[in-house]
């Protein structure tokens, strides 16, 4: 049929609203959603006609499309995606994946009433923090501990408790912005602390701190420069020196360690990354870190250190606003349990396992995926290559982890087009483009998802 005629014959919304199928939906679905979806279905067909993709259709086609679109709308927008980018702690993709015990704990606690704030021994009100406090103390060696929603909240709570209307002395080289949303200076001003920047971007000396201490000084703050490293002509004050200065001037030393690794990565062949335990051992008064970075747990902010300071934070009303949820607590407890035995931790916590897994294992896995792709797909070329993964999440910024990747070549799609197509897959596949080539890094892909990747390529083939 002629294009104009086809366009003229497109049904109107009012007409479709009289159809039984639509009326059925109207019984329970919000009318605005039904109308909006009908419009989308009609618009889609209009475009198909205009582009010449179809030269006939029926009202039933449009109604079927309407039902599909409606189904999609009612489904979850929050989806599983496949991380083929090789960035292990990918903030945009949800950072750390939870370990099995953490997941089991979440389900058990969320699916049942529980002792969140109930002391089962005494039969009276208990503390929600008690479930993880002992565990954190044991694992980190700290005197006391508490947890809040995330590390940004932890920093804010610490400064608000110890440094409100007072000065926090921090090195200029540590005034970092993390992932565009966490700026040390901004968080500090929200907390009511006044920032005193000392030293220069690349060099700060102990006397820079010392010269600025006065009766208004609240804390000496050290911030771990998670997502960048200043190389070359640099000088930084060591934690030991800062702790000594704090002790002598009776001013608490606070360290925002950011990623918060609890295991010594140098044992596994990586460059040494300061651990949480080391900071405590060196005598830092208060240390804060994230739950979902190197720790490999849920989003949380962990505050540890001397009991006098932690007790003050527990009494701060701000704590109530930053209160951690029961599901998070359950996940955190489940994750921390593994750390009682480091071997268990590195085997079972996905973030640690992915960082420490061997290149040779990934070679076999990449080969398997490549063979499967090659056996089913004609119009793409797949090549096995050595490359590297990164930790991400502002952790271990200079560490490159050797890995194997599959390089994808296509005559049909540019790398950018292919990236988009894979991202738009039913289960989105997030790849990385490197040197204008599409790369699938198997380090962050699970074996169970190989089929989804193969099917996505079959669809594009
Ligand atoms: C990541 C990070 C933060 C923010 O932690 P969230 O848990 O994301 O709130 C703060 N400080 C440092 C040094 C970080 O690396």
Key features?
binds pyridoxal-5'-phosphate, 461 residues, Aspartate Aminotransferase, domain 1, seven-stranded mixed beta sheet, four-stranded antiparallel beta sheet, alpha/beta, L-seryl-tRNA(Sec) selenium transferase, Aspartate Aminotransferase, domain 2, coiled coil, SelA_trans_N_dom
List the SSEs and their pairings.
Blueprint lengths: L2 H7 L3 H4 L3 H7 L4 H20 L8 H16 L7 E2 L16 H11 L7 E2 L4 E2 L4 H11 L3 E5 L2 H13 L3 E5 L5 E2 L3 E2 H8 L2 E5 L7 H5 L6 E7 L15 H11 L3 E6 L17 H6 L4 E5 L10 E5 L1 H9 L2 H4 L4 H13 L3 H7 L1 H7 L2 H18 L3 E13 L2 E16 L4 H9 L5 E2 L1 E3 L2 E5 L8 H11 L1
Parallel strand pairs: 1-15, 5-8, 5-9, 9-10, 10-11
Antiparallel strand pairs: 2-3, 4-12, 6-7, 11-12, 13-14, 14-17, 16-17
Helix pairs in contact: 4-5, 6-15, 7-15, 8-9, 15-16, 16-17, 18-20
The structure holds pyridoxal-5'-phosphate.
Describe this structure in words.
- With about 450 residues, this protein is an alpha/beta fold.
- It has 3 domains: about 5-75, no CATH class; about 80-90 and about 355-460, Aspartate Aminotransferase, domain 1 (Alpha-Beta Complex), CATH 3.90.1150; about 100-350, Aspartate Aminotransferase, domain 2, CATH 3.40.640.10.
- The protein has helices at about 5-10, 15, 20-25, 30-50, 60-75, 100-110, 130-140, 150-165, 185-190, 205-210, 240-250, 275-280, 305-315, 320, 325-340, 340-350, 350-355, 360-375, 415-425, 450-460, and strands spanning about 80-85, 120, 125, 145-150, 165-170, 175-180, 180-185, 195-200, 215-225, 255-260, 285-290, 300-305, 380-390, 395-410, 430, 430-435, 435-440.
- The protein has a 7-stranded mixed sheet, sandwiched between helices. Strands 13-14-17-16 form a 4-stranded antiparallel sheet. It has a two-stranded parallel sheet with strand order 1-15.
- Strand 2 (about 120) and strand 3 form a beta hairpin.
- The chain is globular, with a radius of gyration of 27 Å.
- The structure holds pyridoxal-5'-phosphate.
- The site of pyridoxal-5'-phosphate has 14 residues, from helix 8 and strand 10.
- Converts seryl-tRNA(Sec) to selenocysteinyl-tRNA(Sec) required for selenoprotein biosynthesis.
- It comes from Clostridium ljungdahlii (strain ATCC 55383 / DSM 13528 / PETC).
């Amino acid at each position: 049929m002629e294009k104009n005629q086809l366009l003229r014959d497109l049904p109107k919304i009012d007409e479709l609203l009289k159809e039984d199928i639509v009326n059925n939906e109207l019984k329970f679905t919000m009318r605005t959603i039904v109308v909006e979806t009908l419009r989308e279905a009609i618009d889609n067909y209009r475009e198909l006609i205009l582009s010449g993709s179809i030269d006939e259709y029926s009202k039933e086609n449009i109604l079927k499309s309407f039902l599909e679109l409606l189904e999609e709308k009612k489904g979850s927008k929050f989806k599983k995606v496949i991380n083929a980018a090789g960035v292990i702690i990918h903030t945009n993709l949800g950072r750390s994946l939870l370990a099995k015990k953490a997941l089991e704990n979440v389900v058990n606690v969320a699916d049942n009433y529980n002792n969140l704030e109930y002391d089962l021994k005494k039969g009276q009100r208990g503390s929600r923090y008690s479930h993880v406090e002992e565990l954190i103390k044991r694992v980190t060696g700290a005197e006391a501990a508490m947890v809040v929603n995330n590390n940004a909240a932890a920093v804010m709570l610490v400064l608000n408790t110890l440094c409100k209307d007072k000065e926090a002395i921090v090195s200029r080289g540590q005034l970092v912005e993390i992932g565009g949303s966490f700026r040390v200076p901004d968080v500090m001003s929200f907390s009511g602390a006044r920032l005193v920047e000392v030293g220069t971007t690349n060099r700060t000396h102990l006397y820079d701190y010392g010269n600025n201490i006065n009766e208004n000084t609240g804390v000496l703050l050290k911030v771990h420069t998670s997502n960048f490293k200043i190389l070359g002509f640099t000088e930084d004050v060591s934690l030991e020196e800062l702790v000594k200065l704090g002790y002598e001037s009776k001013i608490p030393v606070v360290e925002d360690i950011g990623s918060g690794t609890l295991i010594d990565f140098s044992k596994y062949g990586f460059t040494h990354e300061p651990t949480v335990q080391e900071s405590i051992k060196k005598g830092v008064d208060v240390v804060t870190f994230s739950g979902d970075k190197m720790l490999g747990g849920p989003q949380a902010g962990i505050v540890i250190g001397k009991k006098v300071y932690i007790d003050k934070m527990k009494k701060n009303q701000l704590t109530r606003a930053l209160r951690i949820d029961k599901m998070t607590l359950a996940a955190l407890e489940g994750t921390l349990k593994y750390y009682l035995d480091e071997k268990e931790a590195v085997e079972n916590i996905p973030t640690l396992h992915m960082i420490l897994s061997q290149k040779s294992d990934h070679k076999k896995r990449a080969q398997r995926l490549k063979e499967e792709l090659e056996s089913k797909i004609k119009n793409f070329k797949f090549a096995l290559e050595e490359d590297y993964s990164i930790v991400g999440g502002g952790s271990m910024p200079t560490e490159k982890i050797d890995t194997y990747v599959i390089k994808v070549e296509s005559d049909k799609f540019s790398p950018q087009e292919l990236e988009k197509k894979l991202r738009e897959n039913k289960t989105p596949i997030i790849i990385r483009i490197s040197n204008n080539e599409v790369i699938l890094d198997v380090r962050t892909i699970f074996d169970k998802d190989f089929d989804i990747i193969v099917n996505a390529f079959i669809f594009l083939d």
